[in-house]
Structure formats: C-alpha cells, structure tokens
Design brief:
Length: 381
C-alpha cells in the first residue's frame, strides 16, 4: 500500500520536464470545516503551503503549464501546519490527521492563470474553463464511488473493477482529444491491474478501447503523444486475440467426483467438442447457462458440449453445480496461475466459447457469441 503512495508522489515530483514558468493558482474553499486552517499545494517543481484567509488562497509557483504534457499537482487541506512535503507525506501515511486515500485533491496545471473552487467535503476541485480538469474531477469522483462500493462489500471485487472500468471509459469517450484520456488508456493497455484493478481486459472492453483510439486519432494532438498508445494497442490486441487453428493445450481437468482426467480423454468422446469457459463470479456466464444447455441437448450426436470452470477454488465451483446442476459435463481447470489458457489460446474474458476438432486436437472456432452458436454448429459436418 505504501508503495502505491510513493509512486503517486513520484509521479507528481518527476513528471516529464517542461519549461517552468510562474503560475498563479488561486481560488476559494467551500464547505470548509472550522478545524481546517491550512492548504498545502505540491507541484512537480516544489511544495507550498499557506493559511487559508476567509476561505481564499493564492499561490504563485514555478511549474510547467504547457498543453503538451500532463502537469500534475495536488492540494491537501489540514488543521495543522506542515512546513515540508515530507511532514505532510508522513501524516498521509500515518493517517494521523489526513489519509492518502481520501484527502489529496488532484488537479492538472494547464494554464499560467488558474482559478479554482475547492469543495472541502467532496475533496474535489473545479477549475474554471479547464476541460482536462473537468475530466480529472469526474474520474476522481468515480474513483471515490468505486472505493465506497469496495468498502461496502456489496459486489465481488472483480465486478466492481469491471464496473469502474466501464464508467471510466465512458468519461474518456467524452474527451477523446485529452492527454488525460491518452494517459489513462495507455495505462490500461500496459497493465490492466494497475489501471483498473483487473487481471486482464475483457474482449468487450478492448473493443471499446479500440473504438476510442480510432476516435482519438481523428483529433489534432501534440507530436509524439500517440506513438506509445498505438504501440501498446498493437501489443494488447495481439495478446488478447483469440486464436484459431492451433492445438488445444494438453491440460488436466477435475471432475465433480474429484477425479483428474486429461483433455484427450474428452476429445475421444465425439468428433467436435464445444467448450464454455466460465466462472461462478461471472454473471454473464451464469445467465447464458440455460441457453447453452438447451443447445447442447438439441445438438447432433457427434458434438459434445462441456463447461470448464476457471474458479480459483474447486469447492466454489462444485458447490455451485451441486445447487445448480447442468445436463452436460463440467470440469474444473483451477486457478490458471501459469497463464496456460491466456498464453496458448488468448483467453482473457468470460464466457468464451470454442470448438475443438477432436481428430486434429485443434481449435477451429473461437470467440463467437452464444446467439451465433447454432449458426456456427450448422457448418460442422
């Protein structure tokens, strides 16, 4: 946790160098508690603080204010005086008066004259006339909503992360020419866990990202800003692409009776094997089970339908099937810590359907929707 905070401050302090100039940042603080007396302000060029005067503040600092770089800065409102950034960071780490999760109010310096309204209760800053800061505030507000949902434990963490990603992409779509959008999408493509709290992107979210990048490319952007994004897009699309015409990996599966079998034993049971990759935490997977079962029961005899669960715990999977039995064979592959399925098949989202030709042991179709399944099956001999 502390490492994340250190990285947060490093981003502030070592943002790409730009020509520093004097920047005036002033404004008012509304919903100010009586206990709060000081406003602390950190930019990539240094740290400043002052006593709030009748709800007002003004800083004259040296900072980069060009529009071709992201110039991060943040405020923290405190009742105590913190004469150095180190003092403030210690307090944020210790959570003695303020905490790094809730108190930093981030802005982006995009002008040498900035007027703000800070909401002390919501911990958000409204920067007059700044589109990138409007976007930044929307993303901060969403991050706080996401944290509340996490803390309430209403939904599994994976579902909250997927919801947060979808909402963040909606915000990004409103600002396709923003450097903040480019930076956010870059982080998602490079590391979905750090960018969205997900082990991997779903194919649906990757489609949204690809459409967003197509829109970004139509706008006039600073030189070089797209280079890294397009490189990461190509790498991600290659990594997440479902693969046809390759051998299905020689994995071992567990049955409901806790017996281990080889996938080859399953392939020997029919000419074609249809596989549903799913998990108990995947709501779309569970919603599609009745339709998958119907198709399985009505299909040709030379086609075998199976389910392969990627649940981390075998007990979770078996308990679900004991309570919700299905009329086709189901197997548990387990926690794919070695990324066998991802690396060999491009499997990154669920549910995913694949068809294996038993004779060759190769995947001949992958990634189709269940609505298209009967149409795809009709092409098989």
């Amino acid at each position: 946790m502390k490492l994340n905070v250190i990285l947060f401050f490093l981003i502030i302090l070592i943002t790409s160098q730009v020509l520093a100039q004097e920047v005036t940042v002033k404004g008012i603080v509304k919903n100010l508690p009586d206990s709060v007396e000081f406003i602390n302000f950190s930019t990539n060029e240094g740290y400043h603080y002052m006593k709030i005067n009748n709800g007002k503040f003004e800083f004259k600092v040296h900072a980069g204010s060009g529009k071709d770089k992201l110039n991060h800065a943040y405020f923290v409102l405190t009742k105590s005086e913190f004469p150095s950034l180190q003092n403030l960071q210690d307090a944020l780490f210790d959570r003695s008066e303020v905490s790094w999760e809730k108190d930093p109010i981030a802005i982006l310096i995009d002008s040498n004259q900035m007027e703000l309204e800070i909401d002390a209760k919501e911990k958000l800053a409204l920067v007059n006339g700044s589109q990138i800061n409007k976007q930044n505030s929307e993303m901060q507000k969403l991050a706080r909503e996401k944290r509340k949902i996490y803390e309430q434990k209403i939904l599994p963490q994976e579902e909250v992360a997927k919801w947060g990603l979808a909402e963040n992409l909606k915000i990004a779509q409103k600002y396709p020419s923003s450097l903040l959008t480019i930076n956010y999408v870059n982080n998602l493509l490079k590391d979905p866990f750090m960018g969205a709290g997900l082990k991997q992107l779903t194919h649906g979210s990757l489609d949204t990202i690809n459409n967003l990048i197509a829109e970004i490319k139509t706008h006039q952007l600073p030189d070089g800003s797209l280079d890294e994004l397009l490189k990461n897009q190509e790498l991600a699309n290659n990594r997440y692409q479902l693969k046809d015409g390759i051998p299905f990996p020689e994995i071992k599966l567990s049955t409901l009776k806790n017996k281990e079998i080889n996938i080859k034993d399953v392939l020997n049971q029919a000419d074609y094997i249809v596989v549903d990759f799913w998990a108990t935490w995947c709501k779309p997977c569970l919603a599609q089970h009745p339709e998958y079962e119907r198709i399985a029961l009505e299909s040709k005899k030379n086609i075998k339908f199976i389910g392969i669960s990627v649940d981390k715990q075998v007990d979770t999977w078996s308990a679900h099937l004991n309570n919700h039995p299905l009329k086709y064979d189901n197997f548990w592959f387990g926690d794919d810590t070695s990324n066998t399925l991802r690396d060999s098949l491009g499997l990154n989202s669920f549910p995913t359907y694949m068809i294996i030709e038993s004779k060759s042991g190769k995947v001949i179709r992958a990634g189709f929707n269940i609505e298209k399944m009967e149409e795809v099956l009709a092409t098989l001999e």
